[in-house]
Amino acid sequence: MFELLIVDDEKFVVDNLASTYPWEDLGITAIHTAHSAHEALQIIQFENIHIVITDIRMPGISGLELIDQIHKLSSKTKCILLSGHSDFSYAQHAVSSRAVAYLLKPVKEEELIQTVQTAIDQIETEWKEVTSHQRTLYTLSEHLPQLRSALLNDLLQGKYIPPLMLNKKLTMFNLPDQRDQLFAMMFVRMEQGFSNYDDYSRSLLEFGIVNISEEIFAEKFQLWQCKDIYDYLVFVITPKDPGFLSDSEMNEQKARKILEKLSLQLQDSVTQFLKGSVSVLISDWGSYPDQIYPFYQNSISIIRRHPENLHGFFISSKHVVPPAEFQPLHNLYEPPMLIHLLEAGRFSAVEDKFMSIIDELRTKKGYTYEYMQETALMLGSAVLQTLHKQGLLLEQFADIGILKATDHETLASIDSLEKWGTRMIDSLRDHADKETKGSHHTIIQKVQEFVHAHLDQDVSLQSLADHVYLHPAYLSKIFKLETGEGMSDYIYRLRMEKASHLLTETNEKIHEISRKSGYVNPSHFSRVFKKYFNMTPDEYRSRET
């Protein structure tokens, strides 16, 4: 849960603090060590260090300078200073550098444990404040435009959001949450007058168009807008007055005329103030929010019939929603797409997505063969693209039948299409599993060989990670997953086993066995050995004889 870094230029001090204190009882799951401030700063850059215990007097960069640099790299890291000298200036610097404590050597175990616990308490308190309800609401308000835009894009693309969840999001984002109220859609396409701008300038112009739109429509309507996947500005327009169309003098035709007038005003204002032209489409009135997706699809098809031009169009179109059997397969195109799930290696999600498409196919009463062709081509293309992005050739997967997407056997029935698609997904999953296991096995084997060859030296997680060209945190994770044993526990066990063997099979002196087992300081070796075997090296050797 927490990661600790111990820094001291005296190796036996570092080893003593790292291996003889009950850090796991405090929830510390990873202990890193460094023998200089420079080495400590390198570790800080790559590891998520929560607490640092550092000596003050070290060659080069001092502990005081170290904690100043640590706070520049990681402001939330807590630092504890150790010193063999009582110096008021040190204490002053420690306070100004926001150190948790300034402790004098030799520090008592209880005192150091309590100080580290204090640091942990401070970390937990700070994160509770970050995740507090008030802070969350503040952060939410800062990101409302992006959140609203993302939600509208999801609805435009047909992503299914359970009604209860949708209502909660609409309320949270201060959007109209009254089901079945009327809405209209407005599409704004920037025309050739804007084509010469770079992306940054264009985004500013889009922001200007949104501001102009809100100013023009503000009296009677609320706007909810986003930029869709085709780079159109899409606005959902809802009346501020729920009874807008229930007024006896206001029918849908009059309400539409109001929208058309405001839309033409928008076009004129953009031309006048932003020196460019836009095309605008206004939809008919629909039922909010259920008809957002079909209205969007129909509007897009209408806009495509009007090519881009210099001066812009005003497109006034009644919504004529095609019959249900002519609608594209909803689950096939609803995000996340098959290609994105395959590229992410989320095979269970791919399987669920594919089965939802199959289930939708079974509900179709007509044009089933064309829908099956569409599904087979989409899945086959997604699989092929995924293979090529991984540097794999189609011939390596000839058995899964990607090229059989449109043959008679595959499309003979929905059941045969289901079997074909499931077989492809399963084959890709099996290949990925084998690749992962094979890669991990090779890495673990290299690590174990390196540890055995350098057991009498300072074998650190960083040195092992450098040996196999991986990030230390990732190496630590896969080692634990593959072997069921933590890296430091593994090295510790091997050293104790080697020491045990040397004590029972040789007459070498304790200090020689200590060195060959990777411990420079014999006293520290004796303490570690006793902790592991519950007896000193001398007692262990005497017992065996």
Automatic annotation (TrEMBL):
PROSITE patterns: HTH_ARAC_FAMILY_1, HTH_ARAC_FAMILY_2, RESPONSE_REGULATORY. This is Response regulator. The modification 4-aspartylphosphate is found at D55. It comes from Paenibacillus baimaensis. The keyword Transcription regulation applies. Gene3D superfamilies: 3.40.50.2300, Homeodomain-like. Residues 445-543 form the HTH araC/xylS-type domain. Keywords: DNA-binding, Phosphoprotein, Transcription, Transcription regulation. Transmembrane segments: none annotated.
